[in-house]
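Here is the promised in-class demo. Please do not try to memorize the tokens; focus on the logic of going from shape to residues.
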């Protein structure tokens, strides 16, 4: 079964659920999955731009800063 078919089948089964607690568990699971691929790519792009613009903190500078916390 290909991914698209599996997703359609899952949605159909999900729409038939009557247990509110189970639906809440699915909602928490989806939120807990973390960063989406597009968000990850956006963060990578921003980091690359910062790097190109010299907005970096060296490892030694970071360690010195941590010591002052």
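The designed amino acids, position by position:
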């Amino acid at each position: 079964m290909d991914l698209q078919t599996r997703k359609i089948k899952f949605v159909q089964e999900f729409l038939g659920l009557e247990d509110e607690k189970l639906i809440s568990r699915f909602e928490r699971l989806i939120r807990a999955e973390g960063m989406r691929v597009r968000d990850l790519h956006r963060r990578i792009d921003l980091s690359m731009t910062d790097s190109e613009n010299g907005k970096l903190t060296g490892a030694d500078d970071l360690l010195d800063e941590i010591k002052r916390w």
